[in-house]
Amino acid sequence: MTVTSTPRRVLTLRELSVRTGTYPLLEGVSFTVDGDERVGLIGESGSGKSLTALSIMGLLSPGLTASGSISVLDGEVIGAKESALAGRRGRDLAMVFQEPMTALNPTMRVGKQIAETMLLHDTQPNKKAAYGEAVRLLERVGLPDPERAARSYPHQLSGGQRQRAVIAIAMANEPDLLICDEPTTALDVTVQAQVLDLVVSEADRQNAALLFITHDLAVVAMLCQRVLVMYGGRIVEAGTVADVFTNPQHPYTAGLIAASDLDAVDAEGHLTTIRGSVPPAGKFPEGCVFANRCDFATDICKTQPPWTGVPADVRQSGRHSDHPAGRDETGGQDFGYACFHPLGENAE
Ligand SMILES: Nc1ncnc2c1ncn2[C@@H]1O[C@H](COP(=O)(O)OP(=O)(O)O)[C@@H](O)[C@H]1O
Ligand code: SF4
Ligand SMILES: [Mg+2]
């Protein structure tokens, strides 16, 4: 028998809800990420993925209110003062956004920006040491002439180079959790794979947990052990990548998988897609948020489907029982689905 030590839990969301003044944008979002995990968060555009990430970072727009609990390491995010959040951002957790310019200051040289991140958190003793470390970081993230890159303004770098610089800033203080929100979507196809490789190698090198947001299921299958499926501001299914992608229980997950399979064409030769489109915020159906697009909807789906947690060894062969993704001791939503009529023979 292998004895495994329990990895540190870096992130716990419990019943996170986010509202505008009038309607909900996220509801009842609960999940955990452990220190040794790479977790994917998938869903169509408008599902609430970025809002989830921004909530964790404590960066929601002022008009939005969050309730529930988000703890990063041992610190609560919801209700925390901005000064406390700023002290943790970049140190306990860091984020790489879709568009690198969001994260960079256009008026400051790149090397100085990286150095300032370290000085802010006192991880370098002085400006000179911090600048030297910034140049080393730029080299490590693969910028060909790191000293020149350090002297450059963001607009003088290519999109891929800018994202590498953002990754350098994110990793500068060795965060415990790295959140990536579609980090390669805005980049040329040719550099996407390289930037993905960099994210993974940096997270691995520093033992950072990864919460990876994407609409690309193939990327999740490649990078992550566990996946959370989001739709209508809710987690609708969660589990190991192996379970969820081969034996999805929620019709939305099955639709996403079918839509990502480029070989899957219907009788007229059209690619399979999920019928209809994601409603704008505030316009999702009452009850099951997916009901207006679901082929299996019945009257009961007008009420909110409860979360059904399924032990790992019941779902499949039991081979996951040693894996962190199989644990559900927090009572969180790490494993299961929310649907009245789940697909698959293991489900009721
Ligand atoms: N500040 C905001 N005020 C009102 N609605 C918002 C705000 N931010 C995002 N939304 C809405 O919330 C929904 C989820 O957005 P988002 O989290 O960005 O989705 P995703 O990242 O999955 O594409 C979308 O309908 C979006 O328009
Ligand atoms: S609860 Fe009903 S409408 Fe929602 S996904 Fe399941 S079957 Fe479809
Ligand atoms: Mg988004």
UniProtKB/TrEMBL annotation:
<dbReference type="InterPro" id="IPR003593">
    <property type="entry name" value="AAA+_ATPase"/>
</dbReference>
<dbReference type="Pfam" id="PF08352">
    <property type="entry name" value="oligo_HPY"/>
</dbReference>
<dbReference type="InterPro" id="IPR050388">
    <property type="entry name" value="ABC_Ni/Peptide_Import"/>
</dbReference>
<keyword id="KW-1003">Cell membrane</keyword>
<comment type="similarity">
    <text>Belongs to the ABC transporter superfamily.</text>
</comment>
<feature type="compositionally biased region" description="Basic and acidic residues">
    <location>
        <begin position="319"/>
        <end position="330"/>
    </location>
</feature>
<keyword id="KW-0813">Transport</keyword>
<dbReference type="InterPro" id="IPR017871">
    <property type="entry name" value="ABC_transporter-like_CS"/>
</dbReference>
<dbReference type="GO" id="GO:0016887">
    <property type="term" value="F:ATP hydrolysis activity"/>
</dbReference>
<keyword id="KW-0547">Nucleotide-binding</keyword>
<dbReference type="GO" id="GO:0005524">
    <property type="term" value="F:ATP binding"/>
</dbReference>
<feature type="domain" description="ABC transporter">
    <location>
        <begin position="11"/>
        <end position="257"/>
    </location>
</feature>
<dbReference type="InterPro" id="IPR003439">
    <property type="entry name" value="ABC_transporter-like_ATP-bd"/>
</dbReference>
<dbReference type="InterPro" id="IPR027417">
    <property type="entry name" value="P-loop_NTPase"/>
</dbReference>
<dbReference type="GO" id="GO:0015833">
    <property type="term" value="P:peptide transport"/>
</dbReference>
<dbReference type="InterPro" id="IPR013563">
    <property type="entry name" value="Oligopep_ABC_C"/>
</dbReference>
<feature type="region of interest" description="Disordered">
    <location>
        <begin position="307"/>
        <end position="334"/>
    </location>
</feature>
<dbReference type="Pfam" id="PF00005">
    <property type="entry name" value="ABC_tran"/>
</dbReference>
<dbReference type="GO" id="GO:0005886">
    <property type="term" value="C:plasma membrane"/>
</dbReference>
<keyword id="KW-0472">Membrane</keyword>
<keyword id="KW-0067">ATP-binding</keyword>
<protein>
    <submittedName>
        <fullName>Oligopeptide/dipeptide ABC transporter ATP-binding protein</fullName>
    </submittedName>
</protein>
